[in-house]
Amino acid sequence: MAAADYVNSMRVFTPAHNYQPAGDEGRLPSAPGTSHITSRKLQEMEAQQDVARHYNLPSAYPDEWPAELDLSDESRDEAGPSTQDTAAQAKWRYSGLYGDRGKSTIIASASTQQDEPDPLGGPQSVMELLKQRGLPVDEDARLRSRFVLSSTSFSPALFLTHTRPTASAQSLLQGLNYLTDSIDQESASLKALVESNFEKFVRIKATIDNVYEEMRDDGTQNDNGLHRSLSQNARQIGPNSAGVRKNALTEANEYGFKGINAPFTEASEMAEELWGEALNGRQREEGLKQVLEAVEKQRGIYEIGTDLQKSIKQRDYDAIIEQYTLARRYANDAKVLVDRATSTQRSLTEDQVHTILVTGRMWMDVEKQIQAFKRDLWRRLSNAQSTKQLLSANGQDGEYMDLIAILLELGVDDNPVWVWLLSRYDYLKTRIASFCERGRAEIEILRRRLASREKPSPQSVASYLRIPIREAARNYSDPLDTEQILEFWGCVHTFLRKLISVQGGLLGDVIEFWDTAQSFINGSKQKLLPTGFEGESRKHHRLSTDSINGLKDGIIELVNRIQVNIVSLFADAPPDDLSFLSAPSATSPMGTLTPTVSRFNLDPKDIPPPLPKTGEVWAEFAFWPPHANSLSGVHYLGQFLILIGTAASEMADLSPISGGSTTYDQLKLLVSGTRERCVRATCAAWNSDAEHCKYLEDWTRDLERKALTKMPGHFMAFESAILTGMQKILYISEAMTKPGSVDVVTPPPTKLLQMVRSQFVTSVYKALSGLVENAERPVNVEGEDEWVLIGPSFSGTGSDVPSSVSVYGGIDSKNRNVRILLTLSNLRALRAEHVPQLITSFESAFAVKLTDESKTIQDVLGQIDTRLFQSYTRSVVDTLHTMILNGISSADWVPSTSRPDELRPYVYTTMLTLVMVHTEVSTTLPGASSSTSTMSPASPSHPLTHAILAELLTQISKSLLEGFMSRPKYSLPALMQATLDTEFIAQTMSQYATEAAGQVQSQIYLELDRRTNNEARAKLQAELGEMRGVLKRLRERTRGEFACFKKVRSVSSK
């Protein structure tokens, strides 16, 4: 387009103060044609200056872009207020319309209606946003115009719905602030534009009116004044002055527009390019105001989604319920609005449509968040299994009640109470099955490992049976068995504790689950639960009859599962197949419930094979560790039965079971059956240990009673511990039961009592048999030396003490006589004290009388005592018998003098033998008053010393009788010698005289009297006085040698 035409098109925008009313000054001059041309050039120059001044250009046609126009808005602001006039300021404000919008919009006027920046301040244009949403805005101009702010068909609701479908309230508020600032800028610029160019609009209007009148008159009339005539003359001067003017309004020249169509089109395009955005600003302003009003009006709806998202992240349940309730009210209001319009056949207003659309989008967002939140709540409710761990600090119900409450507030189809109860039931059922399967596998693996080990020696077994004598009734801290066996017992104990313990065990979880279920059944828990929006969740506050019956059946099933697993452990044989075993991962919830410590890892590839059948009693019991002794058995089995009895009572007290279920009878069978199996296993081990009781003899003296070894005390302590443990096993008296609860622990049957009774008597017999075996044949104790010295001992022995007899305080366990003497002493202590105490303890513990058994045991003890006593004295008696017979039958026995005054050598030999026996017995069996540091011949002797010497005196008398009877006749000297020998022995051993010995001595004198004549008898009577003197002198002379036979007299105070 030519520069002149461009200037003519811009001439209309001359400043308002140049406008003058129509008159001579305002008309075109009536000068010749050259004047007219000069006037147009002046006008063109003026227009070019206006354009350059308006756009801050050095000229209307600059060669390069001015550098000062590249300054940013901030730089212009920092320059401070200008000193330009009001018009210049207005132009600058108008120029600000182009600053932040980009120069591309100014250059390409055609893109004004095609696209525009985001009115809410986004980085992308409107069309780019819509294209990302998949809208065909390039093909559909009408659709595009609905989103262009400068379009008259702009729809705020449609704009927000498609350009901001997921915008948060915060981003919308930011866009609102940006929109407000833009409106303020555009309004000020538009106002300044109109004020500064108003007179230009008036002048161009007047010019257009004059031109129109001239063109309408075809140039033939000049009735409208000087202006028209001059204009007509000026046109006639030009080259087209002939004929009708080219601008005449005729059909041929398109009514005057034929020559100016092209310039007008170019001017229109230039005007659109320069002023289109400014002119469209008002439309955009109106659109932005509509958007602003819509956002402000529906601010609450826009903010719900963001607030709800924030509350869900913070798990602020109260805020979630409040916001969701508000959203539901908005949705209900929108629904009511639609229903009312439908029923009344009325169209909705644009505001109502916008409200419905915004509410719908909000509801979709809220519902999406709430559904995701509900899924999370259901998941957490299913995982909230341990109600004990979910108690809050104040003792109130914990998370699972909160989850149920929030679900009821939000409104759900399924009953969260029932869902939680079902998930809890399934969890407990699975947990019981998995735990018992793994626990029994661990127990069986440990049992197989123990069985594959070498059988312990009897001495090793006896070392654990040797309980401290005077600590049997106290807490015994030393190990009761080997470490591996104790580990097995610990494994079984942990298994039972974690399965049936009320505190921390699976049974405790089952009981707690039923208590919680009962509170939901009777409605006490529902008092704390909400009813939901408009009471919609009240239907979930009551469980149906079928649900209640299902819960009762579930409790019965859980109890049956526990009961079956316990019965399987104690009543069934050890399992042969462990192929079901699979070790759970450390992260699984069952991985923390393994009965044993963490170092026990199950490897399915390294499972010991089943054991061959060897006939061992323990092979029949899955709960009994191989080679375990009875002491550890009664200790742990007593604890097991306390757990089982307490658990059975707790399970029987549950209302679904106590109300007549068959499970009650099964629980009674559980207790009685487990007790019977425990008694059988213990009795078998007791019987085996009784055979090992002989190894309790370590040939060391009792610390308080030196005439005894420690064996009677160890045996007493062992049997007492077994009886105490058996009493706990049979009666389970320590099992805890609630007051008034059903008792499932029944008294032991007579069959079990008889089994224990028989085993008790058997164990005593076997122990006594072991005593005899120890005395007759030495039993080596592991680590034993030939001499076992307890307490101080003498450094040497006298010449009259045989080497086979140890000094007081030490025991020569290799000496048979020493063993027999100590065994005799032990037997007498057992017969007099220990066995009667054991019988009394048994009768008291089991409420039975052992009259026959007690008599039988005493008879057996007597027989054993007699047997050992004779075993000890027989060798001495045989020696003395031979010695006496040989002495009496010797040729030099008859004295060569008429009055014998010496004893025959055999008498001294016999007496010295008795001295040796006395020494051996009294040294081995010191008297009750003997101390550990002194040994006086005058000390009171042991009762067994008197019994042995009395028996030997009787046997000596019998030997004398037999020896004297071997001679046919006795002369007076021979008669006197026989009397001296007999009386010396009788008087020296007078304190050991017995009725049997006295009778034998009387028989000796009768036999002597038969073998002499009357003369000898008469002379003997005359010699009796002299014989008494000789006998007295002989006793005085041997007083020191035979002082040990002197009767000890108590010293009385004077």
UniProtKB/TrEMBL annotation:
Q: Which GO terms describe its cellular component?
A: exocyst
Biological process (GO) annotations held by this record are:
exocytosis; Golgi to plasma membrane transport; protein transport
The keyword Manganese appears for this protein = no
Q: Which domain of life is it from?
A: Eukaryota
Q: Exocyst complex component EXOC2/Sec5 N-terminal domain spans which residues?
A: 117-1045
Q: Which UniProt keywords apply?
A: Exocytosis, Protein transport, Transport
Region of interest called Disordered, as start-end residue ranges on this chain: 20-39
Does Transport show up as a keyword for this record? yes
Family per similarity comment: Belongs to the SEC5 family.
Looking up PANTHER family in the UniProt record yields:
EXOCYST COMPLEX COMPONENT 2, EXOCYST COMPLEX COMPONENT SEC5
Question: What the protein does?
Answer: Component of the exocyst complex involved in the docking of exocytic vesicles with fusion sites on the plasma membrane.
Binding partners and assembly: Component of the exocyst complex.
Name the UniProt record assigns to this protein = Exocyst complex component SEC5
